Amino acid sequence: MHNNGKPNPPRQVLDVVVIGEALTDVVTTPEGTNEHPGGSPANVAYGLARLGVSTGLLTAVGADCRGTAIEEHLAGAGVTFLPGSHPQEKTSTATATIAEDGSANYAFDITWDIEAPDLVHAPPKVLHTGSIASFLAPGADKVKATLQALRAECTITYDPNIRPALLGTHAEAVRTFEDLVHLTNVVKLSDEDAEWLYPQRSAVEAASHILKLGADLAVITKGSLGSLLATRSTTLSTAAAKTTVVDTIGAGDSYMSALILGLLARGTDGYAPSVLEQLGRTAALAAAITVGRRGANPPTNTELEEAHRP
Description:
The protein is 35% helix and 21% strand. It has a single domain, classed as UDP-N-acetylmuramoyl-L-alanine:D-glutamate ligase (3-Layer(aba) Sandwich), CATH 3.40.1190.20. The longest helix has 19 residues. Strand 12 and strand 13 form a beta hairpin. It is α/β, with parallel strands linked by helices. It has nine helices and 13 strands. The chain is globular, with a radius of gyration of 19 Å.
């Protein structure tokens, strides 16, 4: 193609590319309604950027006020919105209606489809995906195709972040999850996710099964009980960091962001026990900072470094 003699602009190489949903969380209480940007993959991208990691997000939002609010929120932390992230007529929503007795009803209006990105010629160091994006058609098939194209080019991390109300049957969800695991290096899930996927297995057994499916590292978070990190040669537990819990919103996503930060910083030591200890400790500190304040408010790199100090 003729380009008038102008050189093509260089491709931006990012440390991390996140592929997954960004949506608007709508919370309605007797006192009123509040909206804020959400979606697990978007939260992970936001947390990574807050930690100083150059991060791009490929998502699907509408060219509406909610989509604009999401983009401004992420850009404020330094996240790059990748081309092709505005394919929808309207931005997806997840609505929680809280009654006076505290009970909640949830409703989802979510569409997920993307244009599969061409990242082969400029792969990131880490590609992360998960949550609704890895299960909901038609976008889920394009996510899988991207993982297949990049599995030899970068470290791939995956957090299924199970949302049963948005999945098909249990058997279909397990099959979809396991079809992706063999394309990934690191799988992180909560103990609730593990119990839903594998109700007859302990956390250790679930981690072992995930490793047999092809992952190099399986991480299962257990809230205040800490985390389990397992490879084919090592299984260890790390403690949760002490904190006063304000709310748990975004804790798992902050853990994931800090886990990816640790993967980027581990050097040539792979998944040695000392590396696993450091990964678990750093991620636990990030989650503790997040639950110690209201909302999905992950730490900055400075806050995380200060938390590491005795």
